[in-house]
Write a structure and sequence with these properties.
2 helices; five-stranded antiparallel beta sheet; alpha+beta; 123 residues; homodimer
């Protein structure tokens, strides 16, 4: 966990693309089980993560997903996708298309930008 | 298309589970390219679709995803998942786990409920 807000926290997912997971702080199964305040912050955080990933990593596409079929606790995946990544154009849960990108993911500078944007939005 | 709102429209995805696609009316690549109004309606529609699916289909889990790696136009998938469906607990883009559910999807009664809820929310 590198960000711990009032109603949500954010972790990296170990992967060869920039991949974040936003967790609702309250342990709920579905989005519609969450409080209004948590839902508002989740949506704002999704958009802030997307915007910051686009600026920082210049991906070809952003992917967003909320499944929780194994871990029934609300969490949202935000992935920066590249045309030469391991699965593109398949979702990261689909069939592998090629070898991993060799790119190093610069986490520290991105985290600083993201945390600043989240704090500015009072999340 | 069975619902055409001010800023979005909704289609069924042909599948053996209840599966909707919410499209932004404005042709944008990423969520953060959409107008504030479209974003607000998309998020409300996601929650209304989830709530109506839960009430009507009693799924084991709702899945939500926005990829657009092939069709770079903002659209959000909302899926009602069941423990005995073809892919559970994998996402619908993952590896098939078993045969399709034989269940008939009752669309008409669900559509009526969903459209009423969307109209009530002024979407």
């Amino acid at each position: 966990m590198f960000f711990n807000g009032k109603n949500l926290y954010i972790e990296w997912h170990e992967a060869t693309i920039p991949w974040l997971k936003i967790f609702a702080a309250e342990p709920r199964k579905e989005l519609t089980d969450c409080s209004e305040r948590t839902l508002a912050d989740l949506w704002s955080a999704v958009l802030i993560c997307e915007r910051t990933m686009r600026e920082h990593y210049k991906p070809d596409k952003i992917n967003v997903a909320s499944f929780g079929n194994r871990l029934a606790r609300v969490h949202i995946h935000i992935m920066a996708r590249f045309e030469d990544d391991s699965h593109f154009p398949e979702p990261m849960w689909g069939q592998r298309q090629r070898a991993d990108r060799p790119t190093q993911i610069d986490r520290a500078a991105f985290e600083a930008k993201l945390i600043a944007a989240l704090k500015q939005a009072d999340i």
